[in-house]
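Both lines are retained for reference:
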Amino acid sequence: MNQDGYTDIAIIGEYITGSGPEGEVPFPVAGIYFQQPDHSFITRPELDQEINGKGHNRTLYDVIQYVSKQRATVH
């Protein structure tokens, strides 16, 4: 996703809060794992918060398109 040649992983989990009148309405939460040269993975929590906060977490296509345009750098 960040055009560094390594395989990155995007996930979307659906959660429910379990309380209140809308507690059983599922909502998506996306996360990105960027592969490093040593084949480990790291995350950028601030990017995950941005993806979810701006609503780019509905589909994997949305997540990938958004992250690809951000030119995310990871170290």
